[in-house]
Amino acid sequence: MPFMMEFLYFPEDKTEYIPAVISLGVFIALAVLVMFLIMRVSKKQEERTEEQYGSQQAKKDDSLSYKPQGK
Fold first, then answer.
1. Which of 28, 51, 56, 68 has the fewest CB atoms nearer than 10 Å to its CB?
2. Which pLDDT belongs to residue 37?
3. Cα–Cα–Cα angle for 26, 24, 36, nearest 5°?
4. CA 9 – CA 21 distance, rounded (Å)
5. How far apart are the first and last CA of the chain?
């Protein structure tokens, strides 16, 4: 079983972990930033689509709805 552990590297000097933690933090921060940027752009696109096609959809919905005839 020891032959499978050769590829793992656990340094004795724990300060070697610092650059890895810093780069991990940077990548996580960038991922969160990009996620919020995508959400913001998506929200703007949704609002534009509602403005452009919202009135057309309302007309279409009115024509499809059931309107009983009065006596």
1. 68
2. 98
3. 50
4. 16
5. 88
Residue 65 and residue 60: Cα distance in Å, rounded? 9
3-state secondary structure (DSSP) of residue 17: helix
> 17: Cβ–Cβ under 8 A, 6 or more apart, which residues?
11
Distance from C-alpha of 11 to C-alpha of 44, rounded to nearest angstrom: 48
CA distance 45 to 38: 10
For residue 54, the model assigns a pLDDT of 78
Torsion of CA 27, 30, 31, 35, to 10 degrees: 180
Half-sphere exposure of 32 (CA within 13 A, CB side): 6
